[in-house]
Structures are given as C-alpha cells and as structure tokens.
Write a structure and sequence with these properties.
42% of the residues lie in helices and 28% in strands. With 971 residues, the protein is α+β, with helices and mostly antiparallel strands. The two termini are 47 Å apart.
Amino acid sequence: MTTDEKKTILLVEDEPFIAMAQSKAIKRFGYEVITTESGEKAVTIASTDLSISLILMDIDLGKGIDGTEAARRILEKRCLPIVFLTSHIEREMVEKVRHITRYGYIIKNSGNFVLQSSIEMAFELFDAHTGLKEREEKLIRADTDMKATLAAIPDLMFEVDREGRIYDYRAPTYSNLYAPPETFMGRRMSEVLPPDAAEVIDKALADAAQKGWHTGSVYSLDLPDGKKWFEMSIAEKRDRISGNTRFVVLARDVTDRIKAGEALKESEWRTKIISELTTDYIFVVDIQPDGGLKLRWASDNMSLATGRTVDDIPGPEEWNKTIHPGDRALFAEFMKKMLQSDESGTFECRSIRKSGTERWIRIFANPKKSSEGSLSMVGAVKDITESKRAEISLRDSEEKYRILVENINVGIFQSTFDGKFLSVNSAIAQMAGYENIEQFMAMPAGNLYADAVDRVSFIADLNAKGHVRNREVKSVRKDGMHYWISLNAVILKSSDGNPVSILGSVMDITERRLMEEVLRWSEDKNRSFIQSAMDGFFQVDMKGGLLQVNEAFSKMSGYSEYELLKMSINDLEAVETRKDTRNHIQIIISMGSDRFESRHRRKDGTLYDVEISARHLPGQNGSIVGFIRDITERKKIEALLRESEEQFRNIFERSPMGMSIVGADLRFLQVNDSYCEMLGYDEEELCRLTIKDVTLPDRINRDIESIRKLYLGELPIYHTEKQYIKKDGALVWGSLTVSKMADNRGNFLYYFAMVENIAGRKIAEDRVLALLHEKEMLLKEVHHRIKNNMNVIENILSMQEDSIMDHAALQSIQTARSRIQSMGILYDKLYRADNYREIPINEYLNDLADEIISMFPDHGKIKIEKSFDDIILHARLIFPLGIIVNELLTNIMKHAFAGRKKGLIRIIGSKNGNMVSLTIHDNGVGIPEGYQIDDLKGFGLVLVDSLARQVNGTFRIERGDGTSCILEFEA
C-alpha cells in the first residue's frame, strides 16, 4: 500500500494502554490512525475530518455517551463503516448494537490477524453497500421519470401479444375501462371485451403484425357512463433479447368527435329539408322494435297544420290515427320499403286532423340509423289538399278555377280596393287559421297585415305599378299569432280600363323565414365554434391555396390571418413538396377524408409537428376543410416515454439484484434474469407460480399479512429476510423489499419486489454468532479459573495460619485471606450472573458481610443488620466497594467489641438521585478520646481512603454510640 493510498482509521478507546497497542498494530497494517478516548470527541472528529475512512469504536467509553450513541450521531452526519471493538460479548451488548449500521464486531485481544481481516472485510462490505445504494437511487429516479411520463398520456395504453393477451396497461381513468384491471391482466381481449369490439381489435393487430403499425380503427363500448368510441393506434414492439413480439395499443376516446359528426349529419339533413321544401311542418320519429312509430320531435307549426302537438301523439297508436283508415296499409308498406332500402322517399295520403277534417298531405321522409343501432326517421309534411282537389275537379271546373289550379299551392283571393274580399280559396283561410272560407271572407282584408303601414304601402305600390311581386309582410292569424307571407297581386280592370278589383296570391313563408334564421344561427354557431376551437381550422382550394383559417391556426403558425389567406399550404409545409401536396389532395378527394401527421414551419423559421384531419367538400369548385393540431409536445413525450421504457427495461433486466412484478393474486407477472438465477427457474416457469410456491410453509401467513397491510396503506414498504425454496428444493436466503405501485388516483396496479441474495452474509453471521458463543464460554471458563485460583490462594493462606505462632503475623495472614475471599465472592457473582457488567449491591454485600464475619472465632456474639435500596452498580465499582467493606468489617471485628459479650453491626446502602451512600456502623467501644481520625489510618484505612478516591467518592469516620464509617460516591 503506497502513501497516497493510505486510509485513515479513527480509533475510539478510553483505556490508554489498549489504545497505544491497537494503534501500533493498525499502523503496521498500513493505515493512518487517529485516537480519541470519548464518544463526544469521536463525533466531533468524524464530522470534521473528511480523511477518516473507517471507525474502530469501543462500546463502553466510561463517562459521557457510550460507543453505540456515538455511532448513531456519527451516522446521522456521515456514511462511514463502523466496527465495534470491545471486550464485552454479553447478549445484551450484542442486542444493543444490532440496529446500528455496522461492519464488524471484534473482541479485544482476538489477535492482529483477526483485527486486520475484520478491517479489510469492513472496507469491502462498505464499498459494496455504497455501490448498491447508488444503483438503487438510479433505479428509483428512472422509475419516477417513467411514471411521470406515463401519467401525462391521456389515452388508454395496453401491451398485448399477437393473440390479444394483456401483459400491461395504463389508464388515466378507470371510467374508460370495460372491466376491472384485476380481471383482464393476463387474459385475451376477446375474453374481456364484447365480440364486435374484440373483432375490430383483432383485425387491427393482424394489420400491425404485417406492417409493424396500424392506425384509424374505431370500436365502441357500452360503459357505465354511456356508450363511448375509441380510435386505436398500434405499434409493434420486439424484445431484442428474447425475440418476443408484443404490441403497444393506444386507444383515444373519440366519443365527442363521433357524436359531433352524427349531430352535424342530422343538422345538415334538417337544413336540407328546410332549404329544399316548403312544408307545413317537420318531424322526427323513432322506429319501435315492433315497427311502430313514436313521434320524438316536430316543428312548432305542426299544431297549426294538424291541430295536434307532440304531446297529443305519445305513441304509435296515436300516430296511426293521423292517417286516413283507407291509407294506413299503404302507408305501412311505404315505411317498410324505406327501412329495407335505407333510402329517402315521398308518399301521399289523406290525413285526419284533430278537428276531424280530412286533408291530403305529401310526406317526405329519410330513415336514419344511429351509432347505437336505433332507427329513426326525419321527414317533412306538406298539405297538398288544394292540389288534390284541383286534380279531382279539373275535368269539370270552370275557367275561373284555372287560376286557382295554377296557384293551388298558395292562397288565392280577390278583393276590392277598400278591403272587401270577393272570393278566396280555402288555403288562404286555413293559412290564416280559419276553419272555413265564409269566416275568412267576413274579415276585412286589412286584418291580414300585422302592421297597417304594410297595407297602405301595398295599395300605393299596386296603384303605381299595376302589380306587386313577392312582397314579404308579417300577417296575423285568427288566434293572434304572427306568420310571414309572400304577397303577389295584380289589378283587374274592366273592359274600359278602369280598375275593378285586386287579384292576388299568398304563400306562407314562415318556415322559410324560420329556416333562414336557423341557417344564420347555425352559421354563426359554426363560425363561433371554429374561431374558439383550440385546434387550427383551415379551408383550401384544390391547389392548396388557403381560403379560410381561424385564430388558433394563426397563433400556431405565427402568421396573421391576412398573411395566411395570401399563402398556400406548401408555404407552411416542411415535409411535403408541391407534388406531394397535389397527390395528397387527390387522395383526400378519392377517399373523402384523411388523417395524417406532418411537420410545418412557423413564420420565425422554427419547425413543429402537426396532426391534420382533412375532408373533401364536393361542390361546383370544391374545397378541402380540416383541423390541424400542434403535436410537438406529444412527440417529445412519446420519445421520452420510449427512452424511459428502454432505461427501465435495461435496469430491470440487467440488475444483479432479483426483481419481479407481482399481481394482486400474488402471481409473478414479470421477473428478471437475476431472480431466475437465484431460484433456478426460467422466466416462463416463474410466471406460472405465485410467491407461495417459493416460500417456506411456516412463513406464508406472515408474508401474506404484511402484504395485506402494504395494500391497505398500513405499511409504506415491506422488508424482511427469509429463505426461498429453489427449483431443486434447496433453500437460499434473500433480503426482500416489497412496495405497492398505484396510479395517480391511488388505485392498485401491482407489487414491485426486489430480492438480494444474502446467502454469503448469512454464513458470515452464523460464523460470527458461533464465535461469540465460543468467546462467551471461554470468558466463563476464565472467570471460573480465576475463582478457583483465588480459592487455592485462600486455602494456602488458611493452611499457613495453622503454622504461624506470632499473633501479628497471623492477623496479617487472616487480613490477606479476607481480602482474597471478598474478591472471590465477587467473581462467583460474576460467574453465575448473565450480566457481567452490573450486579445488585444487596446480592453482593449480603454474602460478603456474612463470609467476612464468619472468619472470626467470636462471630456468634455479633448481630448484623443489613438494609439496602435497589441499587445496581457496575463491576468496576463493585470491586473497590467489596475491598472497602472487607477492610472496615475486619477492622470492626478486631477492635470494636474487645472485652464485650455481644455487639451490633449495621450495614446500610441508600441512594438519592445519582449519589450512593454506604454506612457501616458498630455499637462497639468507639475511638478513644484524644485520638484524631487521621492518626488511626493504618494500611487498611489508607487502602479504604485510596479506593474511595478511585471511585470518585469520599470517606469519613464519625463518633457517637460507637463508630460510623461512611462512604459516598456517584453511581
């Protein structure tokens, strides 16, 4: 390892000698070392010194925060590998660091080989983890981009194979889906759609399979919110790795366009009737399943012509009653032929008015089949009674009725100049709303005019010119309603040339005037629609010259309307040449319409993609109209979508981590090669299985319950480690992470699962656990041997006592044996306890006091009372505390009760906050008067005072009813 390659390790150890030894060993491994003794300093150094590559951390660091808390604080600020280096192997200690991200757990004094190997392994694991995390972040970003792109597409999108089997879908709203998503994934279109829609889609797929693409096919579906139409665009998608061919189907909702087309056709048909016929009224009837006719709509003057309203004809029976009984059979046959031929026709028959009068009518009707398949008929009715009567009486009428016959389709009148009718026909009487001629003739001629000024002007023009032609005036019916008439009149003169009377004709032009108003309204509405449309509108002549454009076209191209009307479509085209445009115009003329994409050039020279829908309008000169839509953004989105799909596919297929897409039924929908390699299956085999088939039986219920919570939103993500069943029956460990994928409305789509093969890590963990168990057994054996050695020493001293005659030497030997016995009791407690670090004070001092007092021959006359609060102390405090108690009790037993028959010793342990107080009181002879306490300190008390300072405490002796020895320290 060169100097440039050296890595720096932060060593955190509160024992100076251990830190020096470890630092020296680590430097021999080729690393730089920085040492510190506290957790707080470790956090500061790790946060500021960016050269540090790894941290070796002792768990127990004395005062202040321990190693686990220091590790947490460091990891909040930096991502570093941390290896715990400690002499503690207790279960509680292992559990304490389990949830901290770590890269090793080394027992102190394990040897330099273990230390070096653990450091190198930690660096390798950290590098692997860092690379994996970067790949996961890239995958998440790609997945987010893909979802955002898909969410921006308003159309339905399906991925299917040639048989129409659905592998994936995307729907901005479920209202356009014929079936719930969970019922059609993996099934064919023909299994979830009506036969007629499935047939259209199958033909479109066949075309796409042959050409690689398909556009223009339309199918309809009966959905809960009504019938809708969808236009398809299909593109072939071939998997370069597997060679499988699938198709991406985009279905656009074109319901509004279809309905608008039908409404336009019906409007044009009505306009045609209005413009080509002068009728009494117009009607629309629905053809019932049994062939009956139900009136849906009629123009307002139907009540004037028949005496009936739409409400008077609620059903087929009432409609039939309007036809004369003698003509009903012929009328039914006429209707039948029209429906069979699907062609318009005319029929003349007798009609019965509401009043019972009989009139001849001519019916002009056209059958129509709606997109929903229902039949209806649009028609007009003309009263031809007068014409029929003229035909019947033509053979024997007089000459004066010849004029009436010639003008039979209009009202005829003869009047004087002062406004008295001399003769009229019934048409004019009926036109004015009178039931008979007599009633009409009793009315002054001036009553025909809604405005008296029109009568005066009429007479003036007649006198001046001798005739009036096509004068349109507003007239008044008997019921006071206004209607429009066209008036023609001449002056009849006597043989001597004097004016005698006025002969005239009247034609009801109310429908025509109404039609003109309707046409004007329709033109205004169409003009408003075109101008307000978001898409550009254009009209061009047969050479491509622009005749009409709307504001949207102008904004789209950057030219003003005035500039565009002096240009041709080729001035905007960036793809088609003039020859191409001429050929395209011929295609539109021959096919009637076309829909295609191209590219145009704006005034500023920039290019933009367009979608054009054009239709040929036949006529004397002919023209082409259409709408143009700027699809530049859509094209960009499509390109981004393709790129995102490619990125996601590459990540999914090439990831070293196992990935799968799982349906609501827990069946695998898609898996990558890493997943297959981990379990030993190929993709086709796995896609026939569910997660239950690769999970151990005792884990299935736990996994299903967690996935249920994930589905309900109770878990944001599901992570676990489990064993998988491979194809050959072997087991493999995997780290599983599952997330729920939903659309922008929160509706479930599928589960996305990632599995990391952790078989190697599990083997390493098992090895570490076995090593920990072995170290734990070894530590217990060490404690056991130490305790045995102490027992040996104690026994040797005990045997030595028997051979010592000197009393002072004997007391020294007994004191030493007492101290060793105190340490032996502590080791016995540690050996038997599950927790080697902390011991309750009452368990230790109870036995220790009894053992110490029992060593003295006269211990029977001494009563001992013990009282301890619930105090738990660290082993570092217990050791000096035991020695202190041993020294004090030994001193009491030697001196306090000399010359007395009995005595009392009280041992009291209490705790107030963090302060612990240990009081040993005896009611013995006490300290003689005149002696200072400092003068009493022999070796034992010197040892007690020294140990009190070691535990950062204070020790004092008080007189009063004996002697009290008080030790106070902070726990």
